[in-house]
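User: Hey, quick favor. My workstation is busy. Could you predict this chain's structure for me?
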Amino acid sequence: MTRIDRLPRRRRELPLAGVLFALAAPALAGPRVDYLLHCAGCHLADGRGSPGAVPSLAGPLGRIAASPAGRDYLARVPGAAQAPISDEALAAVLNWLLLEFNRETLPPGFQPLSGSEVARSRARARVLADPLKLRRELWPDSTDY
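Assistant: No problem, here it is.
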């Protein structure tokens, strides 16, 4: 009798289940899962952040996404620019959080960010060293920090 034959039947099936899950995981993943994996640690699952430390993603981003500078900003904040996901996946996360947490503040005719737009922003200059400072410079009338 081999070593695995001595395991209860349920324990023998776990490795196969793990392999099947690993194969299916990319199909199950999406922008919400990527957000939870790469953003929610700081911005929390509901996007509210931590006032004074981590800005909220709920509400103000719709106004920010209304300008080319704002769209560039969204792809260049450190967590976004350095997320270990493709440009297309990051664009999907940004579009998801804009629609999920900022639908009411999106500009009329909002066009989703594209993977190529995110790629240009990520490749441009370096990651923002002080995103809150730039946010205050670009949107001085906003109190959503």
